[in-house]
Write a structure and sequence with these properties.
By secondary structure, this protein is α/β, with parallel strands linked by helices. It has 17 helices and 18 strands. It has a domain of 185 residues: FAD/NAD(P)-binding domain (3-Layer(bba) Sandwich). It is globular, with a radius of gyration of 22 Å.
Length: 507
């Protein structure tokens, strides 16, 4: 029977982070991945036949990856700032937010709202979040703090971010519905909830979107998301990690002293087992009752364009699509879409957001595509249940409706800008939650592997732990389902590795 100090189930980016830390600490480490490649959702692909474009197919931006992990592992990655933060078309105009908001942003707020009140509220709100990010980000790489200690660090931001529904805070702070919506979307990416829900699911999602790496800035990985995974694979291999792909794990066991992982007719014994798969998948592999932990609620659409379309507002497309382009994401539209989808209906108005990777990083396009651009759309409030029994037809229908929604603000219909592949088909692909479940093994297509948790201890027993522990001392969660998980962050991988090393030293 084979053996290893550590076996990591799943080969996503967090799994590679954990494996590299452990191998560098001297533990023999094996990673087992079901697909024929590592990276999970953090990969690039060329989805259009005969077209040399490598798109970030699933995950597409990076905020939560700490500089400390990059330095610890020696990753050679470049994360580049976008030229603009966001643009929201509305009526005959819209709201432009610069990456470093200044006079143009102030004038845009005034033109949209008719006063300076929303602009002043915006500056105060984001100044408080900048302070919060700088204080809380370092705690993501340390043992869990108590709720009381976390509240002390958060200071004045504690009540509006951690104790009141995000919607209540936004309704109090901002008089304009569009401005409220622009802020609110950070609480809804990958999260199906009302902004007014007392369970504060939107607050938890919002928090992770605004504290990344101490700044909250969402940056573009140069070379696409696959470049990040390529670097993680390089450092893991150099550290001596053994990586097996194309091998589906069928059983996991652990008893506190040892563990075993079965895959491809092979059983490997281990002192420690780490799970980069979703907690629901781990339950199944252990033969336990599988508990639902929430479902995915997004539609991802990738496009390749021969040119960027012109906007009716006159705002240059190179500005509007450089950051986040908010489509039908006012506060009221977001709430209405949630209510309809929660009732089992496809939203009447589809909220979504887009950005153009190639404006910031043209390296993902081959030389023959020098004048082309990518466009990524992320649709909200589309839970997996809506797609049951009609995944293909609803996917196609939603794509058509999103394009029609975008066309309301364009001089050039987006269809006239789509490139075609070698077979003459338009260069556009879409992925639903059910597609993610089938292709990546994400239960119900949930990009966070379950509902997001607060990044602090919620019981006395958790204080000082790493948020990756399970009911068995030598079995750890290292993926997005960790207490501080979700997004391309490496946090789950780092914290699982630290938990293993602490337990290893204490044995």
């Amino acid at each position: 029977m084979d053996s290893s100090d550590v076996v990591v189930v799943g080969g996503g980016h967090n799994a590679l982070v954990a494996a590299t830390y452990l191998a560098k600490a001297g533990l023999s480490t094996l990673v087992v991945e079901r697909l024929d490649h590592v990276g999970g959702a953090a990969v690039s692909a060329s989805p259009f036949a005969g077209v040399p474009a490598r798109l970030s197919r699933f995950s597409y931006l990076v905020s939560l990856l700490p500089d400390r992990i990059v330095a610890d592992l020696g990753l050679r990655v470049e994360l580049r700032s976008r030229a603009a933060s966001s643009y929201t078309p509305w009526g005959e105009g819209g709201l432009l937010v610069e990456r470093d908001p200044g006079p143009a942003t102030e004038a845009s707020f005034r033109a949209l709202t008719g006063s300076d009140e929303a602009w002043r509220a915006w500056r105060r709100w984001y100044a408080s979040l900048d302070t919060l990010a700088g204080v809380l980000a370092p705690t993501m790489l340390e043992p869990l703090l108590s709720r009381a200690e976390f509240a002390r660090l958060a200071g004045p931001a504690w009540t509006p971010v951690f104790e009141r529904p995000l919607g209540a805070t936004l309704e109090e702070l901002f008089p304009d519905d569009v401005v409220r919506g622009v802020v609110a979307t950070d609480g809804l990416i990958g999260t199906h909830t009302s902004l007014k829900s007392p369970d504060l699911a939107a607050n938890r999602c919002f928090l992770y979107h605004v504290i990344g790496n101490g700044t909250g800035e969402w940056r573009v990985p140069v070379g696409g998301m696959g470049a990040v995974t390529a670097e993680l694979l390089r450092v893991a291999s150099e550290a001596g990690v053994e990586i097996v792909t194309g091998a589906e794990v069928t059983r996991v066991s652990a008893d506190g002293e040892s563990g075993a992982v079965v895959f491809g007719g092979r059983e490997v014994r281990a002192r420690y087992v780490l799970a980069g798969v979703g907690p629901a998948v781990l339950d199944s592999l252990r033969g336990k009752e599988v508990v639902s932990r929430g479902e995915g609620c997004q539609l991802k659409v990738n496009m390749l364009l021969t040119r960027l379309p012109r906007l009716r507002s006159g705002v240059p497309a190179e500005v509007a699509f450089a950051g986040t382009f908010h489509l039908d994401e006012s506060y009221d539209q977001l709430e209405r879409a949630y209510a309809e989808s929660a009732a089992g209906e496809v939203p009447t108005v589809l909220p979504g957001e887009m950005y153009c990777h190639s404006l910031t990083d043209p390296s993902i396009l081959g030389p023959s595509l020098a004048s082309h651009h990518t466009l990524t759309l992320f649709g909200l409030h589309l839970p997996a249940a809506l797609f049951e029994g009609r995944n293909d037809t609803l996917r196609d229908s939603l794509v058509e409706r999103y394009l029609a929604g975008l066309n309301r603000y364009l001089v050039d219909p987006i269809e006239s800008c789509l490139a075609v592949d070698a077979d003459g088909a338009p260069c556009i692909e879409a992925r639903t939650p059910l597609d993610l479940e089938a292709e990546l093994g994400m239960p119900r297509g949930n990009i966070f592997h379950g509902d997001l948790s607060w990044p602090f201890a919620e019981t006395d027993a958790e204080v000082g732990a790493w948020g990756v522990e399970t009911d068995v001392p030598n079995l750890f969660v290292c993926g997005a389902g960790a207490r501080r998980g979700g997004g391309v962050s490496g946090l789950g991988g780092h914290n699982a590795a630290m938990a293993v090393l602490a337990y290893h030293r204490a044995r």
